[in-house]
Specification:
The chain is of the alpha/beta class. 37% of the residues lie in helices and 23% in strands. It has a domain of 228 residues: Rossmann fold, CATH 3.40.50.12710. It starts with 7 loop residues before the first helix and ends in an 18-residue tail after the last strand. The structure holds S-adenosylmethionine. The site of S-adenosylmethionine has 19 residues, from helix 3.
């Protein structure tokens, strides 16, 4: 694999994260399930990719997310947030706020719409990212920063407002499975003294087999050798959202598919992908702590988990149609007033949000509601719920 060479700081970080995972493997008697490996590689305190000090977002990092690309993403999303807040009052809660760019863009636009919440709450797992978010918000929206509150845990039940999660579900640890000749197998991770190695065993994670059987009942029997992954943490996470949301919206934006597309027989190696310095590859074992590890989202599973937990599925559509429904075209017109050089750059960046060949079709938006009038504007142009 042709990955950029590591500097001394990166090499030290790699060693630290590796050591932490090796300890966990030894404590477990020689192997851990893949989802535990992914959890440690991304979130082990002090060592995981999202909680250590490495630079992740934007041109100098490993990948670019929509809020990093164009501030019109957050501005358009703010129109949907404003529609929700108009009905519910309450707060905004953002999960995994990255560099803080989305919070800045949403708050800026909500201020222009005169629809500011008393609090913009952020639930962030990483102390390093909290510091980065504070810096972004101080620089971008100094007059609004006192409304931003970092939560240490989920709010109590009875919460009202709009919950946002952009590219959060794809960063949740997944279980990897394979259809072996003698039945289902689950990937474990072992350490051979030099490197992490995948090891296929009988399934050990509770609920894995029953989830796979349920998938096969819906999509048909998967062929021998078929390998993919399943996110068993979605259901408890949506249960937690449903438990806290008394009235409001939950908006989930991510790349993913319906179950039938996800577990299509041709997608027989799953969707797991790693990012390091803008290079994408499929080996989660090479640079733990330095690379992002992510899997596409099965939106059918998200919809089912939300509805089972008592939320109403408000809509499912592509990012392009959602942003256009939220008034992206009007926001684009406002770029006319920018100086020419900046206008062209911003226009190019905003186009990436909606072009089918960029983020427009691969990224989807799913909305849940409780006690809110629909239809919501973001889902008014194209309804893909029947595809789930
Ligand atoms: C790919 S980044 C996206 C960051 C940001 N939302 C953006 O769009 O630029 C994924 C983020 O999700 C966060 N995350 C994953 N699981 C989470 C959870 N259960 N609670 C809060 N944050 C979570 C990670 O810590 C990370 O900051």
């Amino acid at each position: 694999m042709n990955l950029p060479a590591l500097d001394a700081e990166q090499a030290a970080q790699l060693e630290q994260t590796r050591a932490c995972i090796v300890d966990a493997i030894e404590a477990a008697g020689g192997a851990i399930p893949f989802d535990r490996y992914m959890e440690l590689a991304l979130y082990a305190p002090g060592a995981g990719y999202y909680v250590n000090g490495t630079h992740k977002f934007g041109a100098a990092g490993d990948f670019v997310t929509a809020p990093e690309l164009s501030l019109l993403f957050g501005a358009a999303l703010a129109h949907q947030v404003a529609e929700g807040l108009a009905q519910t009052g309450g707060q905004v809660l953002e999960f995994g706020a990255g560099s803080g760019a989305l919070a800045a863009d949403v708050l800026q636009r909500l201020a222009e719409l005169d629809r500011l919440p008393a609090q913009y709450q952020i639930l962030e797992l990483s102390a390093e990212l909290k510091a980065r978010q504070t810096e972004t918000l101080r620089r971008r929206i100094p007059a609004l920063i006192e409304r931003v509150v970092w939560l240490e845990q989920l709010p109590d039940p009875g919460w009202r407002g709009v919950i946002l999660a952009n590219e959060v579900l794809d960063a949740m640890p997944v279980s990897r499975f394979r259809k072996g000749s003698a039945g289902w197998e689950e990937q474990q991770v072992a350490w051979d003294g030099q490197a992490f190695r995948p090891l296929w065993t009988e399934p050990r994670t509770p609920r894995l087999v029953s989830s796979l059987e349920a998938i096969e009942r819906r999509v048909g029997v998967l062929p021998p050798g078929y390998q993919s992954e399943v996110n068993l943490r979605l259901r408890p996470w949506l249960g937690a959202m449903a438990a806290l949301l008394e009235q409001g919206l939950l908006l989930l934006i991510d790349y993913g598919y319906s179950e039938r597309e996800y577990y299509h027989f041709e997608r027989d190696q799953g969707t797991l992908i790693c990012h390091f310095r803008h290079r994408a590859h499929d080996d989660p074992f090479v640079l733990p702590g330095l690379q992002d590890i992510t899997a596409s989202v099965d939106f059918s599973a998200v919809a089912e988990a939300g509805v089972e937990n008592g939320l109403e599925l408000a809509g499912y559509t592509t990012q392009a149609q959602f942003l256009l429904g939220c008034g992206l075209d009007g926001l684009l017109k406002s770029l006319q007033d920018e100086p020419e050089g900046e206008r062209i750059d911003r226009l190019q960046a905003a186009k990436q949000l909606v072009l089918p060949s960029a983020m427009g079709e691969r990224f989807k938006v799913m909305g849940f509601q409780r006690g809110v009038e629909s239809p919501l504007r973001g889902f008014s142009l194209r309804d893909l719920r029947a595809s789930l």
